[in-house]
Structure formats: structure tokens, C-alpha cells
Amino acid sequence: LYDNDSVIVATLKGHNPQAPKLILNGHVDVASVDNDQYWQYPPFKLTNKDEWLYGRGVSDMKGGMSSLFYVLEQLHQEGVRPEGDII
Questions:
Q1: Which residue from 9, 64, 74, 84 has the fewest beta carbons nearer than 10 Å?
Q2: 44 vs 58: CA distance, rounded Å
Q3: Is a pLDDT exceeding 80 seen at residue 59?
Q4: For the segment 18-27, what is each residue's pLDDT rounded down to a tens digit?
């Protein structure tokens, strides 16, 4: 872990404790770059070149994790309880 990183662990309880559980896992951290001399574009500056985005973490798990949080929040808001826990 990096200094000041957050770790989120949560469970959307299912209604059947014996049912299989679904674990959703991902990350949103961006690893440090010790030497950026080998990078074609600055790693921590978003660069748009010929309709391509360059930069550290631009194709990482951030979109996937935000989608997971959104769907879980919607399930909770609607009162939908899965068969088994979603962790």
C-alpha cells in the first residue's frame, strides 16, 4: 500500500446466508514512476494525441470500480437483495 491509500471493504447482504457469495475486486491506485525518461509522454499529465489518451492510469480500473459502486448503490436504493452476499 502507498501512504494515504484508502481500502474499501463492504458487503451487500444477501437474504440466504448459505448461498454462494460474489466477491468484486479492483483497484484505483496509480503506481509511482521512479524515472520518466523512458515515457514518450509525461506519465502524470493527460495527453490527447491523435484521439488517443496517454498518461499513467488512463486505462486502469477506475471506470470499472465506479461502475461497481454505482450498481451496488442502485441495488441498495431499490431494496434489491441478492440471494447471496456481494462482497
A1: 9
A2: 10
A3: no
A4: 999 999 988 8
